[in-house]
Amino acid sequence: MGLRGTKGPLQFLLSTLGIGLLACSGEGVAHPTFRPATERHFEPVAVERASLPEVSATTAAARRAAWTSCHKDAPMVVLVALDGARWHEVFTGVESKRAKAAGVPRDTSAAELMPNLHRIIRSEGAALGAPGVGEPISASGPNYVSLPGYIEMLSGRHETECTSNECGVSRWRSLPDDFAVCGEAAVVSSWPPIARAVGANEAALVSAGKSALRGTLKGTRANALFEQGQRGAPEPGYGDYRADQYTAPLALEILRETRPSFLFVGLGDTDEHAHHNDYPGYLDALRAADRTIGEIDAVLTEQRLTGRETLLLVTSDHGRSHNFSDHGDSKESARVWLVAAGSRVYARGMVAAPEPRYLADLAPSVRAVAGLPPSPDEQGRVLSELFATEDL
Ligand SMILES: [Zn+2]
């Protein structure tokens, strides 16, 4: 695929290698095997357990046959990552002590903060990683920073060979690689280095940060939104960072107009505000991300009504340290969360993982659900507690 303007592949890689790196680093720590920490500032949450209906072998075979054909029968998969969004607010709402100190309302529940996400969990999907519900889901580390997390979730590797945000282009086969074979695949992110998690494959459309664009944006509106992002201020990030207010509309436009088989949406304002220790800004970024999730879900629902199968995954690349503003070498910043919904997700509510789960389990799960063969690179396991295991 071509590149926008005069940029060649080398310039594309350089622009994604050198710009917008966050100052996140840490010492190596052991592989995470810990259990959820008890946070005394949070109220216990009422949870409902998942139930998995039986699926007959005939139904499973028919579904598998439908999902293994490319192009018109390919499912539409959307993976949304909220950078550094910790599980606390997602599952238990606003932290009252921190909210009081920041002068914002203290009693906002998780469902009030992120109404679309919780409607999806209740009515059409399920969540892994809620406190006190089963085993945790974590980044594999050993350094809980962004680029290793994105490489892990897109490739299915525990061992990414990347322990910082300064790594080069990933050599592992990624989900955009897989889906580009079966149709359109797109990656749209606020944070520029996410392009390096996609790998060197040129089949997928990539718009990472303000300037890095690989492939061709279709339509005048998508191009206008891209240019708005280029002109917009990078805050709460800096340099080539593209604020979520520009990334989200572009991702939605691509979703609506291109209807890709796979779309990765990387929203980053949560992590940027958290690094500034700006709790109200962090909460606003979560609210904005929830509105985007609601709009994505509406598009996927429309697609399901036309008979196309869909899968929506929402997660984070890492958690946060106890001090909120940092992450990296603290083991608590390994912990993430996952919300899944779609045609093949039969679990509902807060699901108990039977064993520790990892970001590396996302890609094998997506491949299995979409009828794609496992990647030779993947090390994770299918999240069978979310899907009908007879089907996979
Ligand atoms: Zn960070």
Search tags:
single chain, 392 residues, alpha/beta, Alkaline Phosphatase, subunit A, nine-stranded mixed beta sheet, three-stranded mixed beta sheet, 14 helices, 12 strands, disordered N terminus, binds zinc ion
How would you characterize the overall build of this protein?
The structure is a single chain. Helix content is 35%, strand content 12%. Mean pLDDT is 84; it is low at 1-56 and 62-69. With 392 residues, it is α/β, with parallel strands linked by helices. The chain has a nine-stranded mixed sheet with strand order 6-5-4-7-1-8-10-2-11, with helices on both faces. A three-stranded mixed sheet has the order 9-3-12, with no helix packed on it. It is globular, with a radius of gyration of 19 Å. It has a single domain (77-391), classed as 3-Layer(aba) Sandwich (Alkaline Phosphatase, subunit A). Bound molecules: zinc ion.
Order of helices and strands: HHEHHHHEEHHEHEEHHEHHEEEEEH
**Biggest sheet, spatial arrangement of strands:** 6-5-4-7-1-8-10-2-11
CATH architecture: 3-Layer(aba) Sandwich
What's the rounded overall pLDDT mean? 84
State the total count of DSSP E strands: 12
Number of helices: 14
Strand content: 5-15%
Oligomer: single chain
| Largest beta-sheet details | 9 strands, mixed
Give the terminus-to-terminus CA distance: 33 Å
Radius of gyration: 19 Å
Going by CATH, what is the homologous superfamily?
Alkaline Phosphatase, subunit A
Classification by helices and strands: alpha/beta
Q: What gross morphology would you assign?
A: globular
CATH first level: Alpha Beta
CATH topology-level fold name = Alkaline Phosphatase, subunit A
Stretches with pLDDT under 50, minimum 5 residues: 1-56, 62-69
Bound molecules: zinc ion
Q: What is the domain total for the residues? A: 1
Which percent bin holds the helix content?
A: 25-40%
